[in-house]
Design a protein that fits this description.
A: 240 residues, mainly alpha, B: mainly alpha, 20 helices
Chain lengths: 240, 495
């Protein structure tokens, strides 16, 4: 009886919330219905090309207009990895080898070896061209991490240096925060662009945007690899 | 001006990324750097606060885009006051844990101090930001640090507590995001001041839905009944200093968010009554639950929830006096509750189950700790001449000014309940015979320093309430001046 009541209540609440969202019409180009309101998105679309010389608007929003949020999100990822490490930490001393049901066949191992560099290259391409084409630091980083996942699955004793990962992670984070602070010193506000923006659609354009996105790419790749490695291989290296 | 508000976020983040690198070379740095960062932030906070009381609010633009295009931080008398308390408490918690955690290994210590620093940073960010999505990001940072710190002892119970907290926190995040989506879809902006100035253009139905979603999401973080199922477990299972940090820092940030939404952003007329109602229910349920607890930390956790209920009622009164009283209660709670957590966790240090009965006869074994605990208990109940008395008095006066006599009666009744369960513990400490052979653990030097500082502050505010009330009046006024907030943000330029 109690369960039925709960379900009924949930259904009512769910119906009203869903109905609210149904009315909004996400995805329409003019979903802000009130004519008197000028949404900030128009400014974003205009300024991205004019001022920042970046052809990917999403990148300009993520890294420049709302770069502070991205710094926060990168920190969230960093904290998740730290949290995971601190929770799995005690177990690491006891669990031995990774448990493997059966080892991968030679097709998988040699195939992975061939694919691995290509995956890493694709990931690097995606985050280096983050300001020109779809994709960016987060996507590129995830692609690189899948490359490491493939290697970890194909080879039982494949190992990644924990210290190495943590160095990459830290350096990338320092780059992001450091570029922000440099903008603070040069332009007066945190994360402000202080480099010449160059020519639209050039690889070297957009000021600090590509630098930040490459740092994000490295950071995400290192962190997700770290997560995969920690979960797969709870033994890990002994920190001392 | 010696610095700007963005340093409250940038410096800790930079330090958080640096710590793993420096830690490889110099192990002790993982303990020292967070403390140095927090000490620097405290100096910065005090400087900025004194600047703000003279020169008016600081609105900081980020990434060179003035509001509403970019993100901005607002440091005014209200947010600055909370930031100063939070950073100060963060520093004390750090000092307290500095030796408390001396026996744990390098790796665990590194993570503990890193997460502690980020817990403070996230909470400070929630208070400083002037952007509703940016606030979401900081709530995430605070939440993830909180989940990890709750599970720090990696036992079964702490894992369960952390999991509960994680689930509730994730639901809160989802609801918060939905509410933000509704607002953005209607008003095309995320800046708080801009949203507030356009709020009257929003469809009333959507306004109500997004407000309810905000209240539920932030209610989970602010431990409002019935959304606080995670809180007692998290307080009880987390390490002692972390419980103190939750009570002194994290809940304050969540209450701030709730207040910012009801006072500044939404213009709903029923919102204040809603605050009073949820505050009263939270207060009564929490205090009644506290009297039934057998574990010391759970009792303190319920008492903490009750205090937050009182703060909400006080904000709900909706007058300047009410806001003043609410801020005063928040300040006192931020000082007193950590003292109770610190001294309490030493009183039950060696017992396995951390029962209230384990404190029997501690008054002879650990007199100083016991006296400090008692001081905290007297203060939080509101006995004169301690700090808590003045905040409760100002609350009652604010309620009387608004003719809320029923509420006064209810609060006084609940205070009696509060008195009963705190005096029960104090009675056990001093007048019961020790039943077990467990010895008292001697607090470390740092812990003594921290507890004595807090004790002196309780006495100081108790004897000279005027020393803080000026700042509190400033802070209360700045929360009330909505049009000035909107104006100062929307006309902000790059300095």
């Amino acid at each position: 009886m109690k369960k039925i009541l709960v379900l009924l209540l949930l259904a009512v609440v769910g119906f009203y919330v869903a109905e609210t969202f149904f009315d909004i019409g996400f995805g329409n180009s003019h979903f802000v219905k009130n004519e008197a309101i000028k949404p900030v998105k128009d400014i974003y679309l205009q300024q991205t090309v004019q001022e920042l010389k970046v052809s990917n608007t999403v990148t300009s929003i993520v890294v420049n207009f709302r770069g502070f949020d991205t710094l926060g999100e990168v920190t969230v990822l960093f904290l998740s990895v730290t949290a995971l490490g601190s929770i799995l930490y005690k177990k690491r001393h006891h669990v031995g080898e990774r448990s493997v049901l059966f080892s991968a066949s030679s097709i998988v191992t040699s195939g992975s070896k061939l694919l691995f560099p290509a995956i890493v290259l694709l990931g690097a391409y995606v985050f280096i061209h983050g300001h020109l084409s779809p994709g960016g630091g987060f996507q590129g980083g995830v692609i690189i991490a899948t490359g490491f996942l493939l290697m970890l699955l194909a080879y039982e004793n494949y190992s990644v240096s924990h210290n190495g990962l943590s160095i990459v992670e830290s350096l990338a984070g320092i780059t992001f925060a450091g570029v922000g602070l440099l903008g603070f010193m040069n332009g007066g506000t945190f994360l402000q662009n202080f480099l010449p923006t160059g020519v639209l659609n050039d690889l070297f354009s957009g000021g600090v945007i590509p630098i930040i996105y490459i740092a994000v790419g490295f950071k995400v790749a290192a962190e997700l690899t770290g997560v995969i490695y920690t979960v797969l291989n709870e033994k890990g290296e002994q920190n001392g | 001006m010696v610095g700007t508000p963005v340093l409250f976020i940038a410096i800790p983040l930079l330090a958080a990324f640096l710590i793993p690198l420096i830690g490889m070379v110099w192990k002790e740095s993982v303990r020292i750097i967070p403390g140095l960062v927090l000490a620097y932030l405290l100096v910065l906070a005090i400087n900025l606060l004194s600047y703000v009381t003279v020169n008016g609010p600081i609105v900081e633009v980020i990434a060179g885009w003035a509001p509403p295009i970019g993100i901005n931080l607002v440091f005014n008398a209200f947010s600055g006051f909370l930031v100063t308390i939070m950073v100060f408490m963060g520093l004390l918690v750090w000092l307290y844990s500095y030796r408390f955690k001396s026996n744990v290994e390098y790796e665990a210590a590194r993570k503990y101090f890193l997460l502690l620093m980020m817990l403070v940073t996230g909470s400070v960010g929630i208070v400083l930001t002037g952007d509703i999505f940016n606030m979401f990001v900081f709530i995430e940072i605070t939440g993830i640090s909180g989940y990890a710190l709750t599970a720090f002892y990696t036992g079964r119970d702490s894992a369960e507590a952390s999991f509960k907290y994680l689930m509730m926190g994730s639901i809160a995040s989802v609801l918060l995001l939905l509410a933000i989506m509704i607002i953005y879809s209607q008003l095309g902006t995320l800046n708080m001041a801009d949203v507030a100035s356009k709020m009257h253009l929003m469809d009333p139905k959507l306004k109500a839905v997004s407000f309810i979603l905000f209240v539920i999401a932030l209610g989970i973080e602010a431990e409002v009944f019935p959304l606080n199922g995670w809180a007692p477990d998290a307080y009880a299972e987390a390490p002692g200093p972390v419980g103190a940090a939750f009570a002194g820092i994290v809940v304050k940030a969540a209450v701030y968010a709730l207040i910012r939404y009801t006072y500044t952003i939404f213009d709903l007329s029923g919102a204040f009554n809603l605050l009073i109602i949820i505050g009263l229910i939270t207060l009564v349920v929490a205090e009644v639950a506290a009297i039934r607890q057998e574990k010391l930390k759970r009792m303190l956790a319920y008492s903490s929830i009750g205090q937050m209920g009182l703060v909400l009622v006080s904000f709900g009164i909706g007058t300047k006096e009410g806001v003043f009283a609410a801020l005063f209660i928040m300040l006192n709670h931020a000082i007193i509750k950590p003292l109770l957590f610190f001294s309490g966790s030493y009183l039950v240090y060696h017992s396995k189950k951390k029962m209230i009965s384990d404190v029997d006869g501690m008054g002879k074994l650990a007199p100083l700790t016991s006296i400090l605990f008692t001081l905290g208990a007297f203060a939080i109940v509101g006995l004169p001449p301690f700090a808590g008395f003045w905040s409760k008095l100002s609350f009652l006066m604010a309620a009387a000014d608004s003719n809320m006599l029923l509420i006064i009666g209810l609060i006084l009744t609940v205070s009696v309940v509060e008195l009963v369960y705190y005096m029960r513990v104090v009675n056990r400490i001093f007048f019961f015979k020790r039943a077990t052979h467990l010895l008292a653990r001697r607090p470390t030097f740092n812990a003594y320093v921290v507890m004595i500082v807090l004790g002196l502050m309780i006495l100081g505010i108790g004897f000279y309430p005027d020393s803080v009330s000026n700042y509190l009046h400033h802070a209360a006024n700045s929360l009330f001046d909505k049009s000035q907030y909107i104006h100062s943000v929307l006309t902000a330029t790059i300095q």
